[in-house]
Amino acid sequence: MKGRSIAVLAILLVALASTTSFEARQTGIVTEGGCGCHGGMTSNTVITVDGLPDVFNASEEYLFTLTITNDNVPVENPDQNGGFSMILTGGGVLESVPDIDGNTASEMDGGLTHNLEINDRRTWEFKWTAPADDTAIASFLIFGNAVNGNGAADASGEDQWNKLEFDVPGINANPSAPSAEALTILMTVIGLALGLILIGSMWVFYTRNPDNFSIGNFWAYLKPWLTTTDHKQVGILYFLYGFFFFLVGGLLALLFRIQLMFPENDFLTQAEYNSFFTLHGTTMIFLAAMPMIAGFMNYILPLQIGAKDLAFPRINALGFWIIVAAAPLIFTGIWSGEAADITWVMYPPYSSLTGHAGGPNPGTIAFIAGIALLGASSTLSGVNFVTTTFTMRAKGVGWMKMPLFTWSVLISVFMLYVSLPAFIIGIFFLLFDSTIGTTFFTAGGDPLLFQHLFWFFGHPEVYVVVVPAFGIVSEVLATSARRSIFGYRSMVYAMVGIGVVGFIVWGHHMLTSGMSPAWRAAFMITTMAVAIPTGVKIFNWLATLWGGSLVFKTHTLWSLGFLITFTLGGLSGMFFPVAGLDTQFHDGYFVVAHFHYVFIGGIIFALFSGIYYWFPKVTGRKMNETLGLWHFIIGFSSYNAAFWPMHAVGIMGMPRRTHTYAMDSGFAELNMAISTFAIIFGISQLLLVWNIVRSVKKGEKVGKDPWGGWSLEWAVTSPPPTPSFAVEPTQYDANDPSDHHETKLESLLKAPFRTMSSLWNKEAKS
Questions:
Q1: Per residue in 479-518, pLDDT tens?
Q2: Residue 631 appears among annotated catalytic residues
Q3: Known active-site residue 401
């Protein structure tokens, strides 16, 4: 009998050893088969995870909560409430967050599970540090068990468990196309805009030739525009191109302002937001502002100096068509779901390592290539303006008799030529890192070097577009005040001073990058020094208004709006050279507020002023002043209502480039106001569009000089002929001090210098 018992026992031991292994224990399970020691798997047990993103950023930390709910399983023993087992594959570090007593989960076979100290609940907190590789995919397998705590295993069947499986991909893992909602809006609007441009062109042609309209005749009308080398037509193409992308960039801004209108909004995914954000900044600077300014340069500069055309007409036209080719490269990734998400500053190593395992995604590479083409376009266009200004000025157009807009173009182009090589070198190095495996800015290279190269170009680039805006405002205010500009020479020297000092301020963008105290102090001083020539210009504009007889037209209002907003933007910019304040405000919404006050309030407002001012010269018709007034009132007020609160939300701590924000962050009310007024500002631009379209056909006809200007563009018919001047003109400069009556203000300001000069002469004679 004893022998039989031993044999049976041996058989049982062998059987147990050969069964599928799983451990049923109070400290959790270790198999992927589930909680086999408890009741069956059921949907009555619901497992929820809060706090994990849809896509992760490399090495970012995420706090999340695991919750198990089952109303059908009452708790008999409060010390045994629920349990879990969590297994992570694909990378990253998973940690348990200690509870109030310092208890944490236990490690188990590559994951975490409950233990006796924490199974008295059904909610637990964890911290996950995402993998450094943002092309990876992290996979979570979670078993959750709702138990009644009666100590029974599976006999009662009252314990009920379930499992949850999900993936969290890196931001550049398995890229997918943007959601239909946002992408459809963008594609639809761009398609409609292109269609309207084509229909508008056909409408203009039809109204001029209603009896001879045909597709063949329309092509004959369109072809000269596509092959033109005339500076006036190229200027119009530049402007229309830039204005179209101004509307596209505005649309992108409205999409992510809708996203930020509400906390924890899901209108855009994080990937969509990042790509739209990148395209917005790039579009507004490189595809909108610069082409529109280039349009004014092309059209107005030769007229102002009495030149028949630019020095190199074909090169000028080539420069335009290069930017037409660049735009599809910049936008191409958005159609495939692999849009660049590197912002307009393109900082490596992220910009050279994102996307596929071998480097950035194709959309990013195409984006960088498009930026390189824009650099080529600027080079070809700029050589025309420099050569034309130096060699083709008419009689009487001396260096100190040139219109201030011409001076501003010359200074702007010189700044571009000095700064652009550094940027192009950085772009090509970045492109080489992304394509052929060089290491200029990746492992073994220096990512900070790109920041230096970029901002050596990037900050002068602001002045490249701002200085021509200064020139536009100078022309408008002098004409509106019915007098020559106050302090003409000092205005020229001030613009030259900005052009020089603008090159030694780039370091204030990098005060938080580990810069030495000596260099931080140097860049603080040089940045603050920019305020001196800028202040001279503002003073001279105000003095021009004070000493003149101001006539209020729409172009005057936008120039006055420029004075207000640009001054406010300059004042907010004085916070950033101070290293301590920059540390606080860096990468916050205070920066966004400052930049838009300078960019929109400084550049776009000046461009609006220039549109209303020179529209009669281009078309022979005035724009509607009533529509223009409404455009100014709604646009100016909504602009300030949208961007001024950004200073406040930035001081509160809202970071820039953020996809969303928490419900309890305190940012919701201000963001609601910002987004609402931003939408109103965007819609107000339709008034400008309608005014342009309407005025081309129905605007009041004008002669050569409807505003009383003095420079040579007002000496030819409106619109000007081709060539613009049959005979080389002669300019009689109203900025010559002997040609205008001295105002009381000028007399007062000049009195001390006259006294000093008189005393000097007496001393010399004696």
A1: 999 888 999 999 999 999 999 998 999 999 998 888 888 9
A2: no
A3: no
